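Any chance you'd type out a single protein's sequence alongside its tokenized fold?
>
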Amino acid sequence: MTQSLSEASLHDAALTGDVIGVRAALIAGADIDFRNGVADTALDLAIRKGHETVVLALIGAGANVSGGDSRASLLTSAIAAGHENIARMLVAAGACDKPSESSDDFARDRNHDGR
């Protein structure tokens, strides 16, 4: 899938912490979970940079919080970067600590492990 101008705008806004730009790109029709050439979504970029308001806006708009890639889950990325508030936001939104794992699978695994 080719990145449109709205997805490029969304990623740029997420990277720079521009919550108004994020909302404008979404209104313009940007795919909230679009992955750029290095497999990052807007949520990946906002998490990496620690932009809490952008993360909150993307979660509120329906971004996939259980995403991630082969490198790490979104939750793992937030924790590794020291963004505790963002990690809490992700957990509250149902994020898992394994890439592409569903919330139900994560809950079942945690209950099975006795944690």
